[in-house]
Every structure is written in C-alpha cells, then in structure tokens.
Design brief:
The chain is α/β, with parallel strands linked by helices. The protein contains ten helices and eleven strands. The chain has a domain of about 230 residues: Type I PLP-dependent aspartate aminotransferase-like (Major domain) (Aspartate Aminotransferase, domain 2), CATH 3.40.640. The strands form three sheets. A seven-stranded mixed β-sheet has the order 1-8-7-5-4-2-3, with helices on both faces. A two-stranded antiparallel sheet has the order 6-9. The chain has a two-stranded antiparallel sheet with strand order 10-11. It binds pyridoxal-5'-phosphate (PLP).
C-alpha cells in the first residue's frame, strides 16, 4: 500500500552498516586466480574473462559480454542500434548515466513517467510518449533491484512497433520474474559492477543479449572494432583479467548474497515496513535497495533525489516521478561481513 503513513509502535530494525558484498570465504580463490595471472603473461582477453562470461550467461539464461563498466556496455549497444539523430525514450527516475549514454551517442532523449508502486517505467506514459515521439529505442530501468512491473507490456509493445528495448539492469542482479532474469525481456540488458552494487568488481559491466548479431557487435566494439576489420568504430571498453577473476567468484557467490538479502527482507524488514514496494507474485528482487514510502529515522536516503528531467532542465510534467522523488526512502540492506 503506498501513499499512506503507517505508525507502528515498535522500534526500527538496527541499520546495517554499508559493506561491499564480498564474502571473505572467497579470498583464497581470488588470491589463487590473481597469483596465476601474476605468474602468467595473459592479463587481458584470457581465461578469466571467458569463465566470467560463461558463469554470468548461466545465471542470466542468455549470452553475456564483459565490459569495463555499464557506460562502455551502453555505448556498444547504442552503436549497434545506430541511434544518432534518432529519439530515445528514457524514464526520468534513474541515474543520469541512462539518458546521458543516449545523448552522448547523438540521440534526442524524451523522458517518460514512472509508476508510484515500483518506481519504474509506466506503461501508460510509455505508450503516450512512444506514439508522440516515435522512438527508435527505449530504455527501461529496474530501479532498486526488482524488475519493472510493466516490463511484459512494454516489451510486447516495443516488439510490435519495432522499437529496440534496452533494460538498464544496473541494480537488478539477482532478480527474476517467474525464472526470467533481467535483460532477457527486451533486446539487451546492461549491468553495472561498480563498487556499491549488489556484487562488484570495483568497476565493471556486463551486457546480455539473445541476439547473436548484437553479441558479435559488442565483442568487437569493446576492442576497437577488432574482428570486424575495424568496420565497427568501437573504443577500448575491455574488462581485464584481474577484475574478470573477481567477477567469476562474485557471480558464483551472488545467489547466496541475494538469498541472504531476500531472507533479511522477508524476515526482518517486511514485518516492520508495511508501506513499501510490494513485489508481484513470482518476482524475486536482488534487493540492491529496500524501498519504503514513509520517512524513517535510519535511512540511506533516496535512490535518486533529483529526477533526470530536472537535472537536464526539460520542460515536461512527470507527476509520479516528482511524487516518488519526495516520498520514498531506503532502508539499509547490506550483506554483512562476519
Ligand atoms: C541505474 C544506473 N544506470 C547506470 C549506472 C552506471 O553504471 P557504471 O558506473 O558502471 O557506469 C548506474 C550506476 O551507478 C546506475 O545506478
């Protein structure tokens, strides 16, 4: 239930301090991998990256390509869809990386509204804006670690209209909806492995796609167009072997990290916070954030304070996005180190 204050006569659960989601049990495995790398001569394009991509694809259910960060993966995907001079739809309630990636690729960005229930793209406003602006490509962002509640309707609509749909999955590792993982609903998904994310390699990113042409493009783009006779005008967005090694142990440990967060949410937070994001049947969140719609004493603040249409000074009214920016808070939820 959203939009209503609840007054509960109990103390809030003790806040968890921020902690990088790294399990100390993985230290030996990491050190062994790094030692092998230090003693060898392949510090890029090696077995660690291959293993990382195989492990990620196994979890995601579709092929995965490692990148230096989310932004590199986004640049590669946007290049494939050749968005320069075209319109890209983007939710305003997101990190500015999402619209900026499209702007930097030469696209015009039009913002659409979110739902209050899930903070993610609204199907109704999506269709309104798509009919008006005729986008070539659209972003949807899985805010907070759950999957956008309107993802099926938006993906179906995009398929019938020939609009490429890219999922910003920066928050969504570990999530699923009836077994379908983020990035597998649209044409591609983009994950971030930045230092605060659910799992991390310090810096890093992953693009996933079931489209073999797009996958080939991503592999070539991240390496200056190698493998395409330099027809693809890529740059250097490679993931080196050291971070890929960290990525292997992190993606293997991820189900346990997310399982812990899901149990903490279910057993400790859900009974306490009634005025919160409520997941539909069959959906599992990766719980990058635990979001409530009431002011709380111990909070890590908002997911985003300022909507992107305000940051970029766009004259558009997005009432749910503005409501969300004022009326949600995050409860600390971090995988603790022993
Ligand atoms: C929703 C969203 N998109 C994109 C990004 C950018 O990710 P990166 O820092 O890996 O480029 C972030 C990261 O913080 C994010 O939260």
């Amino acid at each position: 239930m959203i939009g209503e204050r609840t007054t509960l006569d109990v103390t809030h659960p003790s806040p968890l301090p921020f902690s990088v989601a790294f399990d100390p049990r993985d230290e030996d495995d990491i050190m062994r991998r790094w030692r092998t790398l230090l003693r060898g001569n392949q510090w890029s394009h090696g077995e660690q990256l291959q293993e990382f991509e195989v492990e990620w694809a196994a979890w995601n259910g579709i092929p995965a390509v490692g990148f230096d960060n989310w932004a590199g993966a986004a640049a590669a995907v946007l290049d494939f869809f050749d968005v320069a001079g075209k319109t890209v739809l983007c939710p305003s309630n997101t990190f500015l990386a999402t619209p900026r990636s499209a702007m930097n690729a030469g696209a015009r960005v039009e913002f659409y509204d979110c739902n209050r229930e899930d903070l993610c793209g609204s199907f109704t406003d999506f269709v309104e804006k798509a009919e008006r602006f005729k986008p070539a490509l659209a972003y949807i962002v899985h805010i907070g670690g759950h999957i956008a509640f309107d993802i099926h309707r938006i993906a179906d609509y995009c398929r019938t209209r020939g609009i490429a749909l890219i999922e910003d999955c920066a928050h969504a590792v570990g999530a699923d909806w009836d077994g379908v993982r983020p990035g597998a609903f649209g044409d591609a998904g983009l994950f971030s492995l930045y230092a605060t994310k659910t799992i991390s390699t310090g810096e890093g990113g992953v693009a996933v796609t079931a489209n073999p042409d797009l996958e080939r493009h991503l592999r070539s783009y991240r390496d200056y167009g190698r493998g395409s006779h330099y027809r693809i005008q890529g740059m250097n967005h490679r993931l080196d072997e050291f971070r890929a090694a960290l990525g292997v142990v992190q993606i293997r440990r991820m189900p346990e990290i997310v399982g812990w967060k899901q149990a903490y949410a279910r057993e400790t937070l859900d009974p306490h916070y009634r005025n919160r994001v409520e997941l539909p049947a069959g959906m599992g969140s990766g719980y990058y954030k635990y979001i409530v719609f009431e002011e709380i004493p111990q909070t890590t603040g908002k997911v985003y304070e300022l909507p992107c249409h305000k940051i970029f000074g766009c004259d558009v009214e997005l009432s749910n996005t503005e409501w969300i920016s004022k009326n949600h808070w995050c409860v600390p939820i971090y995988y603790p180190k022993p």
